[in-house]
Amino acid sequence: MDWPGTWDTMAQFLRDLSTRLPRKPDAIVVVSGHWEEAVPTVTASAQPALIYDYYGFPPHTYELKYPAPGAPDVARAIRLLLQENGLPSAQDDTRGLDHGVFIPFMLAFPDADIPVVELSLRTDMDPQAHIAIGRAIAPLRDRNILIVGTGMSYHNLRHFMSGSPTTNQAAQDFDTWLATATCAPAPERDRLLTHWDTAPGARVSHPREEHLLPLMVAAGAAGPDQGQRIYADTVLGKPLSGFQFG
């Protein structure tokens, strides 16, 4: 991001992420905070392009490449699993990968040789529904398919980018709560995440929850696996966390 020092810890975390996996995934299903549809929708292109859905960045950031293949067979499997669980779905044969996918993946999986399918959020932002989506696609894990949620544990850009310290305590309160909730045993985890907006500092940290909901899908796919916090950082005064299941 041409912002020396600010994102170095996150960048190193992403570079090391693949070393935490038991083996190289055969494919990756990723839920980003940058795609919403009325029903869960999958990318079905065999060669997805990139969507440069950001504004005002240096020119070279619009020339970045991440030529990972798609996986139409995995897209079909996702839709079948959703259907078996009574959940409607759709596919998009032309949509590419947004920056919530290719930016972190350029660091985490730099060879771009693992097929990637992106799965949208639902526009209704229902946390329980997103946990159910994750639960439905959990069998993909048995096929050595990695399920990833990309977003941010704190996403109030107005306060974040201004560097205002006035909401730091609320952000810390929410981060503490989120770690407790995400690392709780599965039934309690799902209950707490469903009611995330009642947590201390919740709406200060997420005026709109699209960057939090990818975590709900990942948690739903975790089954009984307990979460653990594997990333913790403070950026511009705001705590950030990342979690892994299994």
Structure description:
With about 250 residues, this protein is an alpha/beta fold. The chain contains nine helices and seven strands. The protein has helices at about 10-15, 70-85, 100-110, 125-135, 155-160, 170-180, 185-195, 200-205, 215-220, and strands at about 25-35, 40-45, 90, 115-120, 145-150, 225-235, 240-245. The strands form three sheets. Strands 4-1-5 form a three-stranded parallel beta sheet, with helices on both faces. β6 and β7 form a beta hairpin. The longest helix has 15 residues, at about 170-180. The model has no long low-confidence stretch (mean pLDDT about 95).
Structural class: alpha/beta
SSE pattern: HEEHEHEHEHHHHHEE
Shape: globular
Unreliable residue runs:
none
Q: List the strand order in the largest sheet.
A: 4-1-5
Gap from first CA to last CA: 31 Å
Mean pLDDT: 96
Beta strand %: 15-25%
| Number of DSSP helical runs | 9
Q: Give the fraction of residues assigned to helices.
A: 25-40%
Task: Write a concise synopsis of the structure shown.
By secondary structure, the chain is an alpha/beta fold. 35% of the residues lie in helices and 19% in strands. The chain has helices at residues 8-16, 72-84, 99-108, 127-137, 157-162, 168-182, 186-194, 202-205, 213-221; strands at 27-37, 41-43, 90-92, 116-122, 145-150, 227-235, 238-245.
